[in-house]
Amino acid sequence: xxxxxxxxxxxxxxxxxxxxxxxxxxxxxxxxxxxxxxxxxxxxxxxxxxxxxxxxxxxxxxxxxxxxxxxxxxxxxxxxxxxxxxxxxxxxxxxxxxxxxxxxxxxxxxxxxxxxxxxxxxxxxxxxxxxxxxxxxxxxxxxxxxxxx
Length: 149
What we know:
Layout: H1 2-18, E1 28-32, H2 34-59, H3 63-72, H4 75-79, H5 83-88, H6 91-112, H7 117-137, E2 138-142
Helix pairs in contact: 2-3, 2-7, 3-6, 6-7
């Protein structure tokens, strides 16, 4: 019994040692007012919802839904971003955002022409690398949190 407990303790110790350590969040903070933060986060959620709808519609070969969904978050949505918000975004963030919108626009164009679901899924996978890069590099905070302390 003692040997079993020793092995269990040793096994637990090795497991804990091998776990990655949690580090501080070193992402760049993008400071926005509460309204701008809500607008930006809403847009990101729209990207996520659109991605899921495009995946589901592609699997059904429903190119009308793919095109409409992708077009909704494409270039037109990018043009609706207020200049005051754009001015606060870091250069790298501003580079990734348009790539995402253009990526959705490319998906819409593919769905409206050849409608090749394999091409669409590849483009969506590539587009989501921008989302991952952005979320790995940046985090958004509202300026109101500065005064709450």
